[in-house]
């Protein structure tokens, strides 16, 4: 008769050999439903969950897993303790990535999940095509998100994504599966000290590195959780914190070395999504600290310097607001609040058409993007 201990060890060893993917989950609060995240990983027989307990006891997270019918002693579950005293996901995610040993790695928010067979499909795509990364489709609140906004062709069925033509710059987080040797070869690291935007440079470097990036929009998605009361990405923060990743990315030497179309695509996204997004979130004058108007202008100017043509495809409403941000001397908080309100109240034509009609059909233009959002 086989000894039970021997059987357990053999099963555990076999499980480790069969694992192709390590999914790193960083959890910093006992209120997060990390059991759902782990269960979604274990649904893929070739995946393992590395749960990094950031400032919270391993025993506490193990109890939560049991409460959600997940065995914390499952050979495909690793619970790691981590303390750095920082309120940033960078430390625990980096620690988990360094602990990974499988061919593929992935990052998963503790209140997010992978839909059924999402990991299986991405592994099939990655292994079959020799991908460096497979970008997961996204879903939030039951609605599919078109990000990245890929070309309306069938090229993604057999060919990798083009970082410019398929607008990969808009995908600020590396959600999907990543070949571990590619992460190591490119020296991809999350930016230390940031509570948000820590994955911006990591993602952009990967997208524009020449690595093979695959994506099947119709495949099962990565589900972004919406029920965590303390979700970091929705919290209010100082402008320096909010734009730290954007500012840091502009200073990366490799960004300046990118071909002009790539720099332009990246700069348009930084200006439209991050700079003007920060402006739109500050229509209340009380939210502006004394040094923040100048800071916003500095960040915007850094990206315009990298790609002087980046503002051209923006809508008239966006350009008008950006002109105020870029003004010298720096605008006052009242100037920026007024600009944000004018942008929010702009009519349809002003929010869609650029200043130059020659830019109406620009790939990064608002009209073309709107049309693409409506297409299948």
From TrEMBL:
<keyword id="KW-0808">Transferase</keyword>
<dbReference type="InterPro" id="IPR029044">
    <property type="entry name" value="Nucleotide-diphossugar_trans"/>
</dbReference>
<dbReference type="GO" id="GO:0016740">
    <property type="term" value="F:transferase activity"/>
</dbReference>
<protein>
    <submittedName>
        <fullName>Glycosyl transferase family 2</fullName>
    </submittedName>
</protein>
């Amino acid at each position: 008769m086989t000894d039970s201990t021997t059987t357990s060890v053999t099963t555990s060893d076999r499980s480790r050999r069969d694992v192709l993917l390590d999914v790193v989950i960083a959890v910093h609060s006992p209120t997060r439903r990390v059991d759902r995240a782990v269960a979604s990983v274990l649904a893929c027989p070739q995946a393992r969950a590395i749960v990094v307990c950031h400032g919270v006891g391993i025993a506490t997270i193990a109890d939560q897993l049991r409460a959600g019918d997940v065995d914390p002693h499952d050979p495909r579950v690793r619970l790691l303790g981590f303390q750095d005293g920082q309120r940033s996901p960078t430390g625990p995610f980096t620690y988990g990535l360094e602990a990974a040993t499988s061919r593929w790695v992935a990052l998963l928010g503790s209140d997010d999940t992978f839909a059924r067979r999402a990991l299986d499909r991405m592994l099939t795509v990655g292994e079959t095509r020799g991908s460096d990364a497979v970008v997961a489709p996204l879903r939030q609140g039951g609605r599919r998100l078109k990000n990245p906004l890929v070309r309306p062709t069938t090229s993604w069925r057999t060919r990798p994504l083009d970082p410019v033509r398929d607008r990969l710059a808009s995908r600020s987080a590396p959600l999907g599966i990543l070949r571990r040797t590619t992460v190591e070869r490119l020296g991809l690291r999350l930016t230390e000290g940031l509570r948000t935007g820590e994955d911006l440079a990591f993602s952009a470097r990967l997208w524009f590195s020449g690595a093979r990036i695959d994506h099947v929009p119709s495949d099962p998605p990565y589900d972004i959780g919406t029920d965590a009361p303390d979700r970091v990405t929705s919290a209010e923060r100082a402008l320096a914190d909010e734009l730290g990743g954007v500012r840091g990315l502009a200073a990366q030497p490799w960004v300046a070395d990118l071909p002009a179309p790539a720099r332009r695509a990246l700069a348009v996204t930084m200006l439209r999504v991050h700079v003007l997004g920060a402006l739109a979130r500050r229509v209340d004058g009380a939210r502006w600290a004394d040094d923040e108007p100048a800071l916003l202008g500095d960040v915007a100017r850094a990206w315009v310097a990298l790609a002087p043509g980046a503002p051209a495809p923006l809508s008239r409403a966006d350009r008008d607001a950006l002109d105020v941000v870029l003004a010298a001397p720096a605008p006052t908080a009242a100037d920026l609040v007024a600009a944000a309100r004018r942008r929010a109240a702009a009519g349809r034509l002003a929010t869609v058409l650029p200043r130059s009609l020659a830019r109406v059909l620009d790939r990064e233009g608002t009209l073309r993007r709107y049309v693409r959002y409506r297409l299948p």
